[in-house]
Structure formats: structure tokens, C-alpha cells
Amino acid sequence: MTAIVVGEKEDDIAEALTVARQAGDVAVLAFGDSSPQALAEYGHKVYHLTASDPESVFTALRKLYDDLKPLLVVAPTTKNLKDALSRLAGIYDIPMATEVYDVKVGQGSVSYRRGFLSGRAIESDEAPMPAVLLLAAHKNPKASKAGQKAEVVELQTAQGRVKSVERMPKQKGGTNIEAAEIIVSAGRGFRSKEDLKLAFDLADVLGAQIGCSRPIAADLKWLSEDHWVGLSGHKVAPKLYIAIGISGAPQHLAGITDAKLVVAINNDKSAPIFKNCDYGVVADLYQFVPLLTKRLKERLKR
Amino acid sequence: MGDLVVLLKPALNPEMIRGTGEGLVDFDYMPLKLSDIDRNAVEEAVRLKNTYFKDSKIWSISVVTWGPVTKRDKDVRMAVQEGLAKGVDEAIIVADDSGVPGDPVTTASAIVAAIKKFNISPTLILGGEATIDGFSGQVTGRVAAKLDLPYISFARKIDIVDGSRIRAERDVEDYVDVVEAPLPAVVSVTREINAPRPPTLIQIRMASKKPQHVVKFNDLADVVKPKRRLVEARVLAVKRKQIIVEGKTPEEIADKLIDALISEGAIRV
Question: Which of B172, B159, B10 is CA-nearest to residue B82?
Fold first, then answer.
């Protein structure tokens, strides 16, 4: 029995190894910026590909898959790996699932759980192996390194049909919203980019990170996409989430299901966010937020 | 010149979720609707046709993944109708009770089989980046691989160059990749690619006159039956307190809210 782990970042690969080791022997396909020598310390043979585009990863993986005939292909859930691995799953008509956790390898089949219906339900599935599993982040423990360093094999990149013409890095706000303890999040209730200062001021007092709903990042581009909370943005798990001027679209709510405490400030008392918060304040954010910031400053003596 | 194909999924509407007494998802109660991002895919197909492929036809292919098929017929027709009203010329619906609950393995093989059955030679196959129910974003990639066509995922902008190549902006986590590939190709689009317009009344009326074909697996070759088994789907009960903080003055409300946050341990004085 074998499994192939595919990934770029060491943390992702270490989480995938924990799952893949259930299937027996593991080979690692590391691509892009990964460090193959460091990965070899986990004790599994590392195949390294310098390219990171999905077509190159798919081509390399397909060859490895044909050679090793694994029961499982395990990877983190990223957009490029959804692309590459869905092609592999398509070629061989094998099951594939994304954002999975609680993976249990049985006799000839694998079971797992994953979010479903835009984050409103959890599905439990069973799929025959071979199968392709893309893991949810931070839900599996990281594997430990082995005593012995394994072999590293450098792979050649084959010429593909989809050619990259230009790569434009995204503007980064320097935020890691997924790891934030407190998040102050802004939505369409703010009338201009300048007005976001009200949220920034509150965040300052609380030592919070700034989050936002989809329109603020994707449509208006008032904040960079690393602030975007939601199903297509980032899933967050802070102990306090303050949603200001956010109505609570299902995709946004799906991003905050792991938040411990949700506070909503909105002037529309029928906004769905009030059914999905712990504490709600029905008020004009332009009046209430500065006041809340002021009172917090006084009481926290900051 | 070949045709354009757009993949339209009648998906479970997550906003209409309801649980049974045991907290399981009550599938029978939940209606289907056209998956949101597939709406962007049709809009883009229509735009590309009008800009670059005036003589091409737009086909839509919908595979029914939630059953029983007869019970879902009305919802499926509504979803397909929406595509026709927006500019799809001819629609194919694959509905078979042995294909529910669905599996992307089955969906992708049924799409490929339908393309062959109706002798479609696609220039471009478009779909949403993911559907609102399963949200795994794998069907377009599977279709590309099965047809051995170039695949461009997560496109937020598409242009056609010299009538023979596609240039697209792929929107991934850390960067945007501008890529080019020869046509024919398969593309998945993001919500950001366009702003779908609702069809006009005339378009809606015209839609019902357009050809629609309903086929079963037996009418198609090589449809793979579902492999994944949905063991259970449980409604995610995130219990929030839903306390509305009230007071005579905004100051009082602010103070009450701060008190609550302190007693919850969310902030420390």
C-alpha cells in the first residue's frame, strides 16, 4: 500500500503526511518553492519539481501515479492543487474531495468529513480507494521527522499547453487573518474607503486584525484580499469577531463558524447577521463605533 | 468554428437548509437552484459569443445530482430555463435516478458523454469555479482531462487572441497568473469575472421555445456510476446567543456590550 503526498509548503506537507501514513508507504511530490532536503528528513522519498503551475504538477503527478499505483493522493486544499488533482481524478475516474478532515483509511475505502452546503452542514462520506483527498488546513496534526533522511529525486518539467505570460503578485496587507485572535471586520455599511478608519481605530484599541466581507476586498478593493473573510476568502477562528456593517451573507457566515464569540453592529435590524451573532447592536455604525472605541479606550486605559 | 458549452448545475440551495428531528439535512425539503457561479459562466459565454464567436451556438449541459429525478424536475427546468433566457441556444439535461446522490466522477463522465452524443465540437467549455452545494470545484478539471483539453481554472478575465488562443487571468491565493492556451480549452470562472444581468421579459419568453433535450444514462456511452457514498449530512448547528444589547443611550449600550465581552473573557481589562 502506498500514498502520494503533494504540496509546496512544509507545514501543509507535514499535515498531509499524518493522513497519508495511514495507508502505508509514502512518497512526496514537492513542487515550487519547497525545500526538498528539509522534506527528506520526514523519511519519505521526495520527488521535487521546480515548476509550480497546475499543468506541470499534474503531468509529474500522473507519471508518479502510474509508477507507484497509490491508494491515496493527499494534498492541502489550494486552488492550484484543486486544478492539478481534479485532472488526475478525471483521467482515472477516481473519487476526489476537498477541505476534508477526520480521514480514516479502512479496507479498500476511506472515510472523511467535510463542510457542505456553503458551510451550513457537515457531510460524512465513504469513498473506494484509490482516492484523492485535499485536506482542510490546520485540522490534522503535523507528522514528525524520521531519524533517517530519505532520497531526493529531481524531476524535469515537461512542456505544457497552458503557458504563463506574466505573474502578478497580489498586494498584501501583511495580515494573517486566519491566525488572528480578535478580528474587527468591515462590510458594505461603510460608505467610503476613508471611513474604514473607524474600524481601524477600534482594532487598534483591541489589538485586533482587520477583516472584511467580499465586496470590500473583491469589488471595491478597499482592502487587500488577505483581509477577506468568507467561503471564497479566508476561514477564521478568532475568540472575538466584531462584524461592522456586514449584513451576513451565507458565504460570509460560512467563514466565521469557528469564531468563539461574534458581535454584530448594523443599522438594519432584519440583517441575517443578527441571527448569527452572540451580541448584536442595532445602530448606525458611524455613531456607535467611535463611541465604542472611546469607551474601550477609557475602560482598558489604552 | 466550434460551439461554446456552459456547465450549469441545479444545486441545492444552502439558504433553504432544514434539518430533520435528528439534525440531519432534510434533502427532500431543500429546493434546487442554478448554482451562483454558473450564472457568471453563462454571462461570460454570452459575452464571448457576442464578441468573438458570433456564429457559434451556446449549449448548456446540466447533470441532475439530487433526486429523486421526477421530484426535482421543476427545479431543474427552472435552472436550465435561466440559462436559456440569458442566451444559451440549446440545453441538455442528464437526469437518471442511478446517478443520485451525485458524484463528480459521474457528473464529469456524463458531461463528456453528452458532448459526444450531441456531436458538439466545443471551442470553449465554461463552468463556475465551484458549486454552492458541494463547493469542491473539480468537475471542470475532470472534463478537461477526460477530453485531453488545456485547462484554465479560476479565471477572473478572459480574452480571445487571433480567434485561436485564449488568454486569461487566473486568480489564485497569492498571485494572479496571466496564461495563454490554444483553443479548444476548458475554463472555470470566478464570481469576479463579470456582473450577471437578469434576463429581460422577452428573453424569458423566448427561452421556452428553445430546444431542450432530457437524456438518461442509457442514452449515453460510458457514464460512470457514483463511487462516493454520502453516509450522512448533518446540519451545522452553530449556536449563537443572539442577544440584542439595548439601552437608553448609545453610551449605555457601549458599556453593556463591553461588560458582556469582559464577562465572556473575550477582552481583558
Answer: B10
